Amino acid sequence: MNNIIKKYFYESKSFSIKHEKYFNVYEKLLSRFRDKEITLVEIGIHNGGSLHIWKKYLPKAKIIGIDINEDCKRFEKDGFIIEIGNQNSQEFWENFFIKHNNVDVIIDDGGHTNSQQINTVVCCIPHLNNGGLLITEDVNCSYMFEFGNPNKFSFINFSKKIIDDINFKFPNLGKFKYSLNDYIYSIQFFESIVVFEINRDLCHFNKIITNDKENYNIKDLRYNFKVSNLFEKQFFKKFKILRKINEIYRTFKIRNFNNKNLKKFKKYFK
Asked: Closest by alpha carbon to 90, among 115, 109, 70?
């Protein structure tokens, strides 16, 4: 058995359930934290099996477990910090981060409802350390009828919106009324898992820079047609309004060209 986390899963003294594919994902995500003094929070304790896995895999980490069931307090005897509360409550998270203000990794293995998963992201992302991760498990529930799906407000659709949110860090592309793009630097999708990476330092606007070296003025041939100017004569180029009209004309001609070529690829979106 090559996967260490999977090995610890079978060795854990407490009952635990995990999807088989998760072990490789967690190895990929958490290996960089193995010898670091981090704080890891897991939502959804159940029988405590996962807490013991993280304790063995991350021996220098402070492990905090969160559950709505007060019976889970029993795991404090094993050296874990246990907080009882509802992940769907903003008040719970406000009080949690007053008490625990230095968190690196959050694993959401809680109730899996759309509102619980979304609320956890919204409430936790601004408090995570740079370089930290929020890992949401079992997002396949976004496709399940019993969880109120399909729904345009599912957690998966919320996560897809974050893709747009991140890309809006390129100037003048768009802007949401509610945004997390000052915190989330990247987002990864695995089967049934979504991962948000936090790095405020890298969330600046993505300006274009050059290295000021020799320019050979190689012509850009991405379009295989001539985008002719409305006003070819130098005389017309002197007028700002005409230059603007010409710019709009060129933009729409290129846009129409792109849309026309794209039609043949519609089959890949079905």
From this structure: 115
- The three state secondary structure string of 217-246 is CCCCCCCCCCCCCCCCCCCHHHCHHHHHHH
How many angstroms separate the CA atoms of 39 and 60, rounded? Answer: 9
For the chain, which ranges sit under pLDDT 50?
A: 1
CA-CA distance, 30 to 137, in Å (whole number)? 14
Quick one: fold of 4-202? Rossmann fold (3.40.50)
**pLDDT tens string 93-131:** 999 999 999 999 999 999 999 999 999 999 999 999 999
Which residue carries 């606007």 as its tokens? 205
Query: Would strands 128-137 and 39-43 be described as parallel, antiparallel, or unpaired?
Result: unpaired
Whether the model clears a pTM of 0.85, i.e. scores above it, the answer is: yes
Q: Name the pairing type of β-strands 62-67 and 81-84.
A: parallel
Token pair, residue 238, equals 């002197």
List the chain domain ranges.
4-202, 220-270
> What whole-number distance in Å separates Cα of residue 267 and Cα of residue 270?
6
Separation between Cα atoms, residue 24 and residue 162, nearest integer Å = 24
